[in-house]
Amino acid sequence: MRRSVMVIGGGLAGIAAALECADAGAEVMLLESRGRLGGAAYSFTRDHLVADNGQHVFLRCCTAYRGLLERLGATDMVTLQPRLCIPVLAPGRPVAWLRRNGLPSPLHLATSVARYGHLTLRERVALARAMQALRAVDPEDPSTDDRSFGDWLAEHHQSAAAIEGVWNLIARPTLNLLPGDASLAQAAQVFQVGLLQDADAADIGYARVPLSEIHDVAARAALRRAGVEVRLRRGVTSITPDGDGLRVELNAAPTIEADRVILAVPHDRAAQLLPRAAGMDAGRLIALGRSAIVNLHVVYDRRVLEHPFAAGVHTPVQFVFDRTAGSRLGSGQYLAVSLSAAGNELCASVDELRARYLPALADLLPAARDAGVEAFFVTREHSATFRAAPGARALRPGPRTRLPGLVLAGSWTDTGWPATMEGAVRSGQAAAHEALATAARSRPREVAWV
Question: Model-level pTM greater than 0.85?
Answer without folding.
Answer: yes
